[in-house]
Amino acid sequence: MVFALSVQHPALLLCFPHTLITNSAKILGAVLAMALALSVGATTASAGEARLLMDLQSGQVLEAENADVQNYPASLTKMMTLYLTFEALKKGELAWDSRVPISKLAALTPPYKFALPEGATFTVREAVEGMIVISANDAAQSMCDYFGTKRGSGCGAVMTKKAHALGMSRTTFINGSGLHDPRQFTTARDMATLGMALIRDFPDQYHLFSLRAFTFRNMKLRGHNSLMYRYEGMDGLKTGFTDPSGYNLVSSAKRDGRRLVGVVLGAKNGADRASKMEAMMDAGFAGASRSKALMALAPDNKQTLQAANRAAENGGKDAAAILSGSIASPSGSADPAQSASLWATTKSALFRPLKAPEDPAQGTNASPPEPFQDDLAGSAHVAKTLSKLLPRAKPLSAVAKKAATAAPRASRIKTANAVSRSAWEVQVAAVDRPEAASTLLSQAKDVLGAKFAQIMPFTQTISRGSMTLIRARLTGFDTKASAEAACKLLQAKEKSCFVVGSKA
């Protein structure tokens, strides 16, 4: 077998010639083994394209294709290694200057790498910067092995356990670097979940993902995330590539107070990967919600947000009934574990996962799935879950108490069959309790004031399977533009909403 090994950072190898001499046989054997694994993997699985774009504040999925089809993560795996590292730093288990040894397996990994011999040490800061900037495989594997040893289980088991705790139910990790293993897989939705978790749980460390270069022992090493360097507002996260996975990317960008997280898996090349991400981000920023609370559930997510807006003009479906994305994490929790648990519980309660293909190779060329169409994924836990999420700034119990004390006012809220409805309406919530819907509508009316005095609030009960929700809507708008103006006014006061046709 003949293969070519391209080293884009030869300084990483040349700076330690003694390592190459003393370990040349071991390294060559490991690289040959890795190459064989890659060649076998390439014949048994082909990279399937998938993508997903999410609004971090609202949790709305703005665009999705094959978002639940499993694929290989490549170096996106290092995002989980970094999550575990940041978590250990936050808990005081590690410090930035703590030294971690190069594990036996890590010493045998192919480049990109620090090329340190087994038993040599690096600092946690060097590991973090190396994983982010040059995707250092030996640093990632050593950190993963460190956590596996400390916690009494294998590296991959620790990574997978954390992934599932975050709600990444369709992800399995085997190693810490992302070097190809046919048993290691993820989905676009799961990678978006991980990207959002990093932003949410580690705000003090997230800025490191924007590093373009770092200095490792007198060598300045540069990264290669070219899209991040040129796209306005983009400040992380991670690229990835192996032959079986294709070109992968998780990115986050922020403009005008709106933060989006995008995932591209299985692109044909680096340029294709960048162009797909750029197009998604552009479409998302053209209409992403500015809301910071999860009150109004998003429009139909099968299409891009722009396409969904066009569909709404033709009576597009109400997202309260067909939400096909992840729920935003409650940002008020000071405990990342509690926050992650609630997030995972919410998703499992609200969304029926798609059936995974038994063989990832069989699923990669399948038609895009049509998740959650025209139904709610019923769950006995959904009412309890929604009560924890609504509203963001106050627990639902507080809303209910306020509703109870303001019963005469709330009683004025009519039902859908008791009002004359306009062609265009504004939905401010889809909740599980009538008193919560009434209170939210009263609050919305207070915000709109005399300018929209003619607007009538009403509730509408919808059922799908075993689950029932109450839509909280405003009607009586003369035009679509008038409804949009009202929604913008609500959003300016951090009240979530969207405009919808009355037939939806």
Walkthrough of the structure:
With 504 residues, the chain is an alpha+beta fold. It has 2 domains: 11-292, Beta-lactamase (3-Layer(aba) Sandwich), CATH 3.40.710.10; 391-501, Sporulation related repeat (Alpha-Beta Plaits, 2-Layer Sandwich). It is 40% helix and 17% strand. The protein contains 20 helices and 14 strands. Strands 2-1-9-8-7 form a 5-stranded antiparallel sheet, sandwiched between helices. It starts with 10 loop residues before the first helix and ends with a strand. Mean pLDDT is 72; it is low at 1-46 and 289-411. It comes from Roseibium limicola. Substrate binds at residue 238. This is D-alanyl-D-alanine carboxypeptidase. One of its GO terms (molecular function) is serine-type D-Ala-D-Ala carboxypeptidase activity.
Topology:
Blueprint: H1 11-14, H2 17-22, H3 24-44, E1 50-55, E2 61-65, H4 77-91, E3 99-101, H5 104-107, E4 121-123, H6 124-133, H7 137-150, H8 155-165, H9 188-201, E5 213-216, E6 219-222, H10 226-230, E7 234-242, E8 246-255, E9 258-267, H11 270-285, H12 305-313, H13 319-322, H14 336-350, H15 360-363, H16 382-389, H17 396-405, H18 407-410, E10 414-415, E11 424-431, H19 434-448, E12 456-464, E13 467-475, H20 480-492, E14 498-501
Parallel strand pairs: 10-12
Antiparallel strand pairs: 1-2, 1-9, 3-4, 5-6, 7-8, 8-9, 11-13, 11-14, 12-13
Helix pairs in contact: 4-6, 4-7, 6-7, 7-8, 14-16, 17-19
Binding site for substrate: 238
Keywords: Carboxypeptidase, Cell shape, Cell wall biogenesis/degradation, Hydrolase, Peptidoglycan synthesis, Protease, Signal
Region (Disordered): 355-376
